[in-house]
Design goal:
The protein has a 6-stranded parallel β-sheet with strand order 3-2-1-4-5-6, with helices on both faces. The chain is 51% helix and 11% strand. The termini are close together. It has 11 helices and 6 strands. With 238 residues, it is an alpha/beta fold. Helix 1 crosses helix 3 and helix 1 packs across helix 5. The mean pLDDT is 95. The radius of gyration is 19 Å and the shape is elongated. It has 2 domains: 143 residues, Rossmann fold (3-Layer(aba) Sandwich), CATH 3.40.50; 86 residues, DNA polymerase, domain 1, CATH 1.10.150.
Length: 238
Amino acid sequence: MIQAVLFDLDDTLFDHQGCARDALAAVQQSHDTLRATPFETLERAHAGFLEELHSDVMLGRVPLEDARIERFRRLLLAAGADANPELASALASAYRETYQARRRAVAGAAAVMAEVSQRARIGIVSNNLRDEQQEKLQVCGLDRFVDALVVSEEAQVSKPDPAIFRIALDRLGVEPARAVMIGDSWAADVEGARAAGVRAIWFNPLGLPAPDPDAIVRQLNSFEPVAVVVRMILEHGD
């Protein structure tokens, strides 16, 4: 019997990509050079700069606000625009404002968590900052279902390191064999969980091919219909 369900947050329960896309579109429309750049090009560059700076923020090498401004300075340079600090700061603020206004849960996530919470403990395992992730959970109304929130900022270890999964399970008081992890990243969530002795379910809404086709890993393409998804999660170990 499954006693604990671990979830990734961004792009599993929380629609980070959708919010980021909305925010980047708003930024693009505010600047002539960015407007002239194909959105797909901007989106790829933005995602790359975000990933590059994320580890520095997690390790405390760069303050979060500085990293946000630097991300848009690099984006402006990549688009061939003037990258003065004042403009980069203004774009970072515009992005943040739109992102926060558009925050939302992935369809079906709240209903699935509500059902799962009646029969198992729930943990969130995220490579991010605690305040950021706690606020997302609260805004989306998901925090009331969460028994433990474990983030890399506090744990000082990140997925796919199995240690972060063990920290979550210790807080929940559940053995790895009685837990399941659900997340959208094959490398971080699936491989990390399996290395910790935890069964994994790959959240794969785009229907991408599995990076390791020989691995026996169940997939979810959606959190709906809720009853079917909950049954799959909680019977995963049977």
